[in-house]
Amino acid sequence: DFFYIGKVPLVILISVFGFVLWPICTLSNFYLNPEKTWGLGLLILALGSVVSLFAMKVSIMPFERFFESIAKLDELDSPKAFLGKICTIRSPRADHKFGQAQIDNPDGAPFLFNVKPTSESEVLKRGESAVIVDVDNKIFSVKKIDI
Fold it and tell me: Of the residues 40, 41, 42, 113, which has the maximum number of CB atoms within 10 A of its CB?
């Protein structure tokens, strides 16, 4: 968490780490290790890695909020974000074989998705309201409610 692992994509972290580590190791090895000994080279690599980790943290810090906002958008895109929401049946009927419902979206097009009632014997008609109680493989289980 201190180095934003899990908050920022790993590819970006590794790229910034390598971008900082490469010149540190190259220049340090050129000027401080003219005999090109392995021991001093490994010491330079270890110290350069520590410096690169902290440089990576400082350089990624301004982008932390950006990546957090992207993570929040991903959560909103998750099917589980619709649990507990009230939807309206849009197909002629919704039974255990087929059904579609929608939730109005104030920011644009409504959300349209496949639904099935929680009970196999239950049949919902177009225009009826239901609450989303579960999701399995992007098929939402709904329970009829009276509004």
Answer: 113
Q: What is the pTM of this model?
A: 0.55
> What is the spatial distance between Cα 17 and Cα 60, in angstroms, rounded to a whole number?
10
Instruction: Evaluate whether residue 5 is within a structural domain.
Output: no
Q: Which domain holds residue 36?
A: 10-74
Same domain? 56 vs 96: no
Per-residue pLDDT of 40-85, as tens digits, reads: 999 999 999 999 999 999 999 998 888 888 877 665 567 777 889 9
Q: Report yes or no: 63 and 8 within 8 Å, Cβ to Cβ.
A: yes
Which residue has tokens 């392995």? 38
Query: In this structure, is the dihedral angle defined by the CA atoms of residues 122, 125, 128 and 130, taken in order, positive or negative?
Result: positive
Give the C-alpha separation, 26 to 50, whole Å.
15
Q: Which residues, 6 or more positions from 70, have their beta carbon under 8 angstroms from its beta carbon?
A: none
